[in-house]
Amino acid sequence: MIQAFLAAVIIAAILGLSEFAWKKAHIQGEVARKFVHITSGVFIAFLPFWVDYNWIKILAIGFVLANIVNRYIDFFHAIHSVRRKSWGDVLFGVGVFAVALFEPSPWLFAVAILQVSLADGLAAIAGVTYGKKHGKYYLFTQPKTVIGSSVFLVVSALILATGFILSSYIADPLQLWPVLAMLPLMLVCIENIAVFGFDNLALPLATLGVLSLF
Asked: Of 58, 60, 117, 138, which residue is least crowded by CB atoms under 10 Å?
């Protein structure tokens, strides 16, 4: 319980820091939202190493409820400062809860959540920062960029490779290459198709589903 309380305090501190940075105009718009997305998401990804899955589910529910309330009160501006229509702030917590339901190994949980927090977050920042000059397109009115998808692909593969190496997840190295080659491509397609923030739910579940086969 102490670990879960500490985790909740750290997540609250991340939200408070993002709000402070937003008010000081250090980060705005999509960058502000993804700052929260990346920092809180990376922290949450490693929770199973020291927090019980039952507490992670409770924290995820709290995260979802807090984001729903924030949509009406708008207390944390950095989370909901993006103009385009998206339910990503709410669905991220739903994705964490959904993966936690299966109670996978800590490394498998981490790899699944990092796909949506780190790979998707860095892709969005790269797209916003450099996308206008390197190709921009729309899917269901949602802006996408070539450079954003490229960053996602690279970061996704690095997350998988690092996770496999540190966890010794795959005993036979020959099994590693098909996963590294195919899964990031599948995930970048999901990231493009699952618009309005639904990628925050689809990406971790797809990662968990594929890796569970090995």
From this structure: 138
With beta carbons less than 8 A apart as the criterion, state whether 115 and 42 touch: no
How large is the C-alpha radius of gyration of the chain? 17
What global pTM score does this model have? 0.86
How does pLDDT run across 83-113, given as a tens digit for each residue?
A: 456 787 889 999 999 999 999 999 999 999 9
Instruction: Name residues whose C-beta falls within 8 Å of residue 178's C-beta, 6 or more positions apart in sequence.
Output: none
What is the span of the domain harbouring residue 6?
Answer: 2-211
Integer CA distances (angstroms), 137 to 37, 121, 142, 147, in order? 23, 18, 8, 11
Q: Residue 99 is which amino acid?
A: V
Pair 7, 42: CB distance under 8 Å: no
Answer with the residue of higher pLDDT: 166 or 121: 121
Determine contact, residues 132/123, Cβ cutoff 8 Å: no
Contact 131, 150 (CB under 8 A): no
What residues pair up with 139 in beta bridges, in sequence order? 142
